[in-house]
Amino acid sequence: MASIRDVAELADVSTATVSHVINGTRPVSSELTERVRQAMALLSYRPDAVARSLRRRETLTIGMLVPSIEIPFFASVVYSVERAASDYGYSVILCNSGWQQATEEAQLQDLLARRVDGLICISAQMGPAEIAPVVETGTPVVMFERQMPGVDLDSVGLDNAQGARLATRHLLDHGHRRIAIVCGPAISSVSTERIDGFRQTLTSAGLTLDPGLVFTGDYLSDSGRQALDYFLTLDEPPTAIFAFNDMMALGLLQALYERGLVAPDAMAVVGFDGISLSQYTSPSLTTVRQPLEVMGRAAVELLLARIRGEGPGEAQHVTLEPELIVRDSSIHNHQSVEFTHVSDH
Amino acid sequence: MASIRDVAELADVSTATVSHVINGTRPVSSELTERVRQAMALLSYRPDAVARSLRRRETLTIGMLVPSIEIPFFASVVYSVERAASDYGYSVILCNSGWQQATEEAQLQDLLARRVDGLICISAQMGPAEIAPVVETGTPVVMFERQMPGVDLDSVGLDNAQGARLATRHLLDHGHRRIAIVCGPAISSVSTERIDGFRQTLTSAGLTLDPGLVFTGDYLSDSGRQALDYFLTLDEPPTAIFAFNDMMALGLLQALYERGLVAPDAMAVVGFDGISLSQYTSPSLTTVRQPLEVMGRAAVELLLARIRGEGPGEAQHVTLEPELIVRDSSIHNHQSVEFTHVSDH
DNA sequence: TCTCGCGTCGTAATCGTTTACCTGCTGTGC
DNA sequence: GCACAGCAGGTAAACGATTACGACGCGAGA
User: Fold this and answer.
1) Between chains, do B44 and A133 touch, taking CB under 8 Å as contact?
2) Are B78 and B66 in contact (CB under 8 A)?
3) Which chain A residue has the Cα nearest residue B60?
């Protein structure tokens, strides 16, 4: 592969001149510019990004740490991050930790060794103690959907309480009084914030949160199935279930279906996240949508600001607003009636 | 960040010695080894992968080109590739082309500039003409689920015809005689191979392929909906539909549901791919599973063999066998009966 | 005693860029 | 006629590792 020296030789100029015409960092006469361009074309020369990174001390690369890209929600996050990064000329190295803390730490070390310009972490298994050494290297880190207690890191997240309020109010508005939730592990602030929003909306409607109507899941589909099993054993089962993510809501829908029940008649179901698959379920899923494109872009922009050394001294926290998407799993809406009609012909 | 020189100085040895204790490339007395280790620990030294790559002329990085990680099938491919690559000490740079050929070519150039050790491409938009310059650089390329006509590239794919045979035989075995298919664009060999398998099984059962029962989709969910619309306008609609991927099958299920119909009673449905979501639909989806973990690993291993210069002269093509996963969308199976029973209590 | 081999380790070139610094040259203002 | 600004371009030192060579010391064999 041709190097800058080959180009310089062929164009009969110095490597400095070649470099300057490539980067536009110094005026070069049009004659030499032309000679250099031709030489580059002739050799189909491409600057070596590795050498450039070494010299410039920047790799134009960001590391993305994710539990598993196979989970649709994470896939969407990665997608939006990659798109935004690409717009700014950055590439992303993807790491799936598989929820293993040891793996995550190893990947982190590797990313640091590769001298990534920054990191975006989602749902990291590590705690403050593990992230501290990273921060000390000066590598900027942005947390996605999570904040590190004790460590002052930029983050982008959702107004989770508001999301829960939207979902809850929706169910209340449609007459439900016994609303159950399938929440996440108590460790995650995401879950506790949503519980808060849920409780607030309930009390503002004169209701109280019945601990019997709370099932703790793990954000995987099976949790939803188990939740339904549990709720149906109650003397007075709920009439609506609000799952804290779409995967668990999918599990709910399927468990309902297998019992010969169907949402929203037998049970109204609302999810959370707004993964694209939520629109393809039967029935389609009412859900609280996270604006992931915006969030991914925000994460990248926060990170780039840090990389450029622009950010303020203290950490910045960007919080975005969710949006309720009403579909068929919670109410009989106009569209589904139309379709039912069509099916008659 | 500490460099190898700092370590050498602190341990009072040469950089060569430090390098050799790091890499074990030369015997070093236990005394110096110990001094070096301590110095590294003291400075929390991590070798700079960029500098190492420059010198060693390898980056331990592979590029992965995908249309969109948001599509579950691609997400699974990327997942399995990343896991396998990671096992071999390689990182992967992820590129979403968005099905844009221009984007794809730009990303390719960027990956080459970054001196990735190899590339894995899936569903590339480019043709032989565009990939040729890449091949000329000597960078190994493995195609996933596709072969490049004219260019001799390694590839890993599925026995698509066999997959179609499995699905078709399954439907025939359960009494279906009018089986429709929702195939992909005629350009993709994947689709034509599956059509072949479908036709073969049909003829071996004394049936012929009815062109009226073929709908050409684009592998997105909406295609499935449109396909159902079309099939139901026929004088004699099919009793079963075989979709060439799970996303289109999801569209079918949803369209059925919205008409008040339900699989498998009103219509048997079989998908293809075996994305993890296919088990969470209502009803759960019978599908032809691609062994993606194996395929991802195979792609990485093919690539690494090329990188090491081990491969044979001509291109290698690994073809893996699909597996039929029978669930509820095609037949009333034992499990669903059980569940129905449970719902009675 | 000399030589040879072996075990250790250091010196310095190298990978392909970028960039600080220097050198000529030309033209202008006095 | 001279000093000097300003432009155009080259020289060579980084960046941080790896690695080809060579050097040194020591013990063994002749």
Assistant:
1) yes
2) yes
3) A114
- Cα–Cα distance list, B26 to B5, B12, B33, B229 (Å): 18, 18, 11, 71
**Smallest Cα–Cα separation from B333: which of B187, B173, B191, B178?**
B173
- CB less than 7 Å from strand D: which protein residues? A 12-17, 26-29, 31-32, 51, 54-55, 57; B 1, 3-5, 15-16, 18-20, 22-23, 25, 45-48, 51-52, 54-56
Q: How many helices (H) and strands (E) does chain B have?
A: 13, 12
Q: Comparing C-alpha atoms, which of A115, A139, A133 is closest to residue B43?
A: A133
Q: What pLDDT is attached to residue A333?
A: 64
Q: What is the pLDDT of residues B57-99, one digit of tens each?
A: 999 999 999 999 999 999 999 999 999 999 999 999 999 999 9
B135 CB within 8 Å of a chain A CB: no
D1 C1' to B272 CA distance, Å = 90
Q: Is the pLDDT confidence value at A291 over 50?
A: yes
Cα–Cα nearest to A118, from A97, A132, A139, A143: A139
Q: From residue A61, how far is each of A85, A104, A119, A123 by CA, in Å?
A: 9, 18, 9, 21
Pull the structure tokens for residue A78.
Answer: 């990665």
In the 3-class helix/strand/coil scheme, how is A188-237 assigned residue by residue? CHHHHHHHHHHHHHHHHCCCCCCHHHEEECCCCHHHHHHHHHHHHHCCCC
- Cα–Cα dist B61/A223, whole Å: 37
Spanning CA of B41 to C1' of C6, the rounded length in angstroms is 32
Q: What gap in Å lies between CA B19 and CA B40, rounded to an integer?
A: 11
CA distance to A44, B169, B200, B313, per residue, from B205 (Å): 57, 9, 9, 42
